[in-house]
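Bumping with the actual sequence this time:
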Amino acid sequence: MSYLSKAILYLRLPARADTASSEYRTLAIPYAIAVNGRLHREGYARLDALTSLVTQVHQVVMLLSASDVTVLTITPPPLSASRLKTALPALVEESILGDTADCHMVIGPDRQGDRTVCIIDRAWLRQWSNHLLSLGAHRLSAKPFQLCLPFNGHHVSAALIDFTLEKAESRELVVRFSPNEGTGFPLGEKKTDADSASEVLYLLSTLATGRPVELVLPEEEFECYQQLLTGRTAVADSVNLRIARWTDWIEHIDACDINLMSDFVRNKTWMFDARRWRAAAVFAIATGVVNIAALNWDWWRLYREGHRLQQEMQSVYSTVFHDAATIQLKDSASALADLKKKRMALRRAAGEVSADDFLVLSAMLGQAWPALQQGANISARAIASIEYRNAVLELHLKPELQVALDVVRKVLAERGLELGADSSASLWKIRSSR
């Protein structure tokens, strides 16, 4: 199920007033899974049974009961974000019951000077968030359910929400009056008789104050409410009934811009979702493996080619020089040098003259000497001695002799000779460059 890595798991939490402190772990909670706004699955399940989904989905969204979240609209003074956050408890303390220190508050975006504030008991929110984090949730958000109901601006949106408890079923009426206003009314134990339905309709007509109402209710109660509205013409004209479906809620849940988990104590621990980078990491590792394999294959190919060339050189060397057939050549440079020495030795043995023989070097130097006398201002008296060793003709010049070595090198190079001199230019080493 690869689609789960992009999916969002929606959990509709029960009201705190109807839930015992130790009961929330065993409740069957309504849930839905959507990918890109399209519903894939829905049902009821305990949180422990949803562990695999919680760990695989991209995000978990808690839909908090409307009776647990207080939604206020305030007009705060012009303050910076940090100062407004500090002053927020003082701005709302007269509108809530209880101590503001026990409440978690989130302020919405600015809408022409007005701001929406959502308030919830911090311990209740931490209880659910810690439990979901212990199950492996990576990204967690919480939204007030009353601000997730569909709203088009012309009617009051309402919904009958049922909570299945261990021993009974409770019910809550959720009402949204405007884009930034909504509340929840706990109705106690669930009742499906006509009297209870009449009470709900009467409460809605009172809250709506003449505005049309769109009521969303469970499918099994749709017919009962429809029969009641048939006998009440005045109420029927202002109430529109719809069956509760996750597909109608998901779009508006995603559009809600208030997240009660923002700035929460433990919210920063799961901001980084490593699974989002899983595909990129796999691609990078695969690319590295391919490159390493290619480099190793190229190295192996070059190694085999070098080994083949070395064997061919060894074969040629052994064929030409039978007396050295058992010698193993260590590298190509030593092989070429050894071949050159053997070739020169064979030529000398056959009476051939080599370019680095003493007579050849002396003859070439004699041909270049007139040009050296003219260009470098050097005479034969400047030479103290001449020696020949290791195919190099060494000329020892008298000290304190000033000679233009660049000119000497140029003249000798024209005749196939190469000059090497020490720092004092008193020792010339002349060898063949051919």
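The tokens above came from a reply further down the thread. The first helix runs from residue 51 to 56.
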